[in-house]
Amino acid sequence: MKTKENTAKIDVSNEDFNSLLRKNGLKITQPRLRVLDIVSTKTSAISQPELEKILGTEIDRVTLYRILASFEEKGILHKVFDLNGTATYAICSPKCTAQHHHDQHVHFICSVCNSVYCLDEIAVPKINLPARFTLHAIGINVVGLCDKCQE
Question: How far is residue 17's CA from residue 143's CA, in Å, rounded to a whole number?
Fold first, then answer.
């Protein structure tokens, strides 16, 4: 299964990151820029432990946790849980804001390598809720084998 989303990396410049942070009222710091750089180069969502491995001693665990939390709160990243219940993070749509996330799309989780891919091109069905129910989020996960694990 090869899709555009799981093979293409997001092409963003450092200036785009600066603009994104400014737009969201966040200070432009090297740790924030570094996290954005790493997440934007991944073809699948990335977990905090994976980020910690890549970063080494560049950013301590508490700072990384705060960065991920603030990015999620501002609509810069969205969180998806893998098959082990570990939170993974992916870049949100440019339309996302702190008030309204537009990350309601299908996620593909590989049952072998546990990688999580955003499948933006698959429409989420309209949900008709009973009276006085309010929708906050939709989570649809599809589990199978990614293209790498099928080889």
Answer: 32
**Residue 64: both structure tokens together:** 């990384």
Mean pLDDT by 10 residues, the chain (151 residues): 38 74 94 96 94 96 97 91 94 68 81 93 87 87 94 84
**pTM (2 decimals)?**
0.80
Using only the alpha carbons of the chain, give its radius of gyration: 16
Q: Are strands 77-81 and 87-91 parallel, antiparallel or unpaired?
A: antiparallel
Contact 146, 6 (CB under 8 A): yes
User: Which of 7, 55, 28 is CA-nearest to residue 47?
Assistant: 55
- Nearest-angstrom CA–CA distance, 79 and 109: 13
CA 100 to each of CA 6, 47, 66, 117, 120: distance values in angstroms, whole numbers, following the listed order? 24, 23, 20, 21, 17
Location of structure tokens 């546990």: 114
Adjacent-strand bridge partners of 142: 108
